[in-house]
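EI: anyone free to look at a 111-residue chain?
SC: sure, send it
EI:
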Amino acid sequence: MCPTLPHFVSIILKMDRLTTERRWTWIRQRDEEARERVQALKGFYVAAVAYVPVNIMLFVIDILTPGGPWFFWPLLGWGLGLGLYALNVFGGIFGRGWEERKIRELMDRDR
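SC: here you go
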């Protein structure tokens, strides 16, 4: 039995629909990635803005209370955490490129 023109048309329409679905999937994926990135940036900025006044307040408390200086311990600890957070958010050690390379590596290994 020879395929007819309506058969070919239905195949072409199905292929076009699959291509459109892939495009929308890609767009949704990119949108989700952008939203995640914005949330990460927002979280970092909130932490950085809180870091300054809280540590100034701790410094003032340290100056006004007797005993040795201690304000630098929370300053260093929180500063280290904030620095690692910045590396993560701004693509340092484990940025987007690392994720893609690792995914490719794991997929190639599983073949």
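EI: The two ends are 39 Å apart (CA to CA).
SC: 👍
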